[in-house]
Amino acid sequence: MQLRPTILCALGGVALLSACSSVDNSGTAAMYGGNPLTYSSSVSSAISGTEPATAFGKALKAEYIAYAQREADEWYDFFDADFFAKKAGKVVEDENILPEDPANWRFSAEEVAQKRAVRDELIALLDDGKREEKPDTAAVAQARFDCWIEESEEGWQDDLISQCWKDFEAAMAELRAVEPAPMAAPVAAKEARLFTIFFDFDSVAITPVSERVLDAAAEQWASSMGNVAIVGHADASGSAAYNLKLSERRAQAALDQLTGRGIKADQIDSDAVGEGDLLIPTPDGVREPRNRRVTISVD
């Protein structure tokens, strides 16, 4: 939740306020801070207000409105629902409104530094023209980053925190992708494109976000007809032997999905490394959503 007066932490039984923290970042919150009593008018004003002029602005406003409504309707968090409803309304005034600064939320100094590094990369991509080139994807990336920040501060909905991060990473992968420039003369072989899908804890189920990443990988293969390499991974929770088997099953799930999308099986190499190649280094036994993945390289 966005920064709130310390006295709110003492109000017992108020379901709207689920996570009070000893970290004091008072005085740094954004000016459009939320108020549970004004959510209804804030979201109504955002919906009925002037539409932004750009495709990115329209998409970002819609993302924030949808998130505000979900905060209220599903989790009864009217404080943050109002906050993001007001942020949706601010998009009209500033269509380049920035993703949330972690310093405005209740995180430790170390957490602020880590999350700001992620935010800096996002802002760099947005400022590099991705708002104009890929407005819908750029809006998803910013909204899911803010979702990740808000839910991480509350710290109790682990599945939602993980989903926000996975959606953010999928959008970032698309924003990072470099579109090949048209060339009149023959050029050297293109560098392989890398796609990553993520899994829930101890699961091999393909999520809706991963479905879209797999679609993109299949489209890339259709345009190149090159070789495909799949590598399954697991996080460090559980035994090494179990994680190896789990990563093999994840690789097989990705292979089945890709062949189902038309990629020839004899052009796919599949491997699994268990917890042997962690994207995010962690001690043994630690659950880390970003390590539960399959990478797909398309030549």
Automatic annotation (TrEMBL):
It is found in: Cell outer membrane. The keyword Membrane applies. InterPro entries: Bact_OuterMem_StrucFunc (IPR050330), OMP_bac (IPR006664), OmpA-like (IPR006665), OmpA-like_sf (IPR036737). This is Cell envelope biogenesis protein OmpA. Gene3D superfamilies: OmpA-like domain. It comes from the Bacteria. PROSITE patterns: OMPA_2, PROKAR_LIPOPROTEIN. Keywords: Cell outer membrane, Membrane, Signal. Coiled coil: none annotated. Residues 187-299 form the OmpA-like domain. Residues 1-25 form the signal peptide. GO terms for cellular component: cell outer membrane. Pfam families: OmpA.
